[in-house]
Amino acid sequence: MAKEKGRAVIAQNRKARHNYAILDTYEAGIALLGTEVKSLREGKASIVESFATVDDGEIWLRGLNIPEYGNGTWTNHAPRRNRKLLMHRREIDNLIGKIRDGNLTLVPLSLYFNDGKVKVELALARGKQAHDKRQDLARRTAQREVEREVGRRVKGM
User: How far apart are CA 115 and CA 37, in angstroms?
Assistant: First the structure.
């Protein structure tokens, strides 16, 4: 059987970069059931409302919605169950220390297949205030205008 190569994105959390200031990113595996993987291969998942917590030295992903597999039987999974994230102990201890120190949270940015295995990209993030969001929006708009003007001048308009 040939292995899949590369990274195939299943779901992204675009709002996360708007609502949080991303400080660091981590890659973690997820402990899944067979029907969950089959559902993910069909491209069905939503990580918009999900977040990660630390319980008893383990990291759990909560709120991840993987719909039931259409061809599944009574062995189908619960769509919104808590799923354990798989990381090295050193990384987990490092994250626990950072979360305790500051007002930080773990937010999933994307869910993807990496060489046939399901991975989640976690971000260590700090929540943005409303004025920070407005400043970012104004900065992006100004940058876009500058790029348009440079493009116009290059074209000679």
Answer: 14
